C-alpha cells in the first residue's frame, strides 16, 4: 500500500464509523418515538395500569387548562384558589382523582368530564407534579 492508498483507507474507515454511529443514534431515537410512552401509573379510580404516552400528556395539559383552570386561575380569590401542576406531588394528585375529595368534584363541576378525560388529566399532573422537577425529583420511570 502506498501513502495515498493508506490515507484513503483511513478516510473510508472514518466514514464508516460516522455512518454507523449516525444509524445507531437514529434508530435509538426512532425507537423511543415509536413507543411514544414515558411512564406508567396505577390509576386507582379505574383500577387500571396506565401507560402514559406523550399524547396523553398533551391532551391532559389542554384539558387541565380548559376544564380546571377555568376556575383555578391566578387571582380568583373568591371562588377557587390557584392551582398548577406543581401545586401537589404525585401522590397528592393521585389522591385528588381517586378519592375525589375536593369541593368541585363533589358539587358536580367535574361532571362534564368523562372518566377517561379525568384519567388523562391525572396522567399529565402525575408527569409534571412538584416532585418531578428539582434536586429531589422522582425518576419518571422509563419504559423499555
Ligand atoms: C366550577 C369551578 C371549578 C372547576 C371547573 C374545578 N374546580 Fe376545583 N375547586 C373549585 C372550588 C370552588 C374549590 C374549593 C375552594 C378551593 O379549595 O380552591 C375547589 C377545590 C379544588 C381542590 C382542593 C384545593 C387544594 O388545595 O387541595 C383541588 C385539588 C381541585 N379543586 C382540583 C380541580 C381539578 C383537578 C379540576 C379539573 C378536573 C377542577 N378542580 C375543576 C372549583 C372548581
Can you offer a commentary on this structure?
The structure is a single chain. By secondary structure, the protein is mostly helical. It folds into 2 domains: 1-35; 37-132, Cytochrome Bc1 Complex, Chain D, domain 2, CATH 1.10.760. Helices cover 52% and strands 9% of the residues. It is built from 5 helices and 2 strands, in the order H-E-E-H-H-H-H. It has helices at 3-35, 54-68, 90-99, 103-106, 115-127; strands at residues 37-43, 48-53. Strands 1-2 form a two-stranded antiparallel sheet. A hairpin with a 4-residue loop joins strand 1 and strand 2 (48-53). It is elongated. It starts with a helix and ends in a 17-residue tail after the last helix. The model is unreliable at 30-34 (pLDDT under 50). Heme C binds at residues 67-68, 70-72, 79-81, 83, 96, 102-104, 109-110, 113, 121.
List keywords for this structure.
144 residues; mainly alpha; Cytochrome Bc1 Complex, Chain D, domain 2; 2 domains; two-stranded antiparallel sheet; 5 helices; 2 strands; 9% strand; elongated; binds heme C
String of helices and strands: HEEHHHH
Q: Tell me the helix content.
A: 40-55%
CATH topology of the largest domain: Cytochrome Bc1 Complex, Chain D, domain 2
- Report how far the terminal alpha carbons are from each other: 47 Å
Write the layout of secondary structure elements.
Elements: H1 3-35, E1 37-43, E2 48-53, H2 54-68, H3 90-99, H4 103-106, H5 115-127
The structure holds heme C.
The site of heme C has 17 residues, from helix 2 and helix 4.
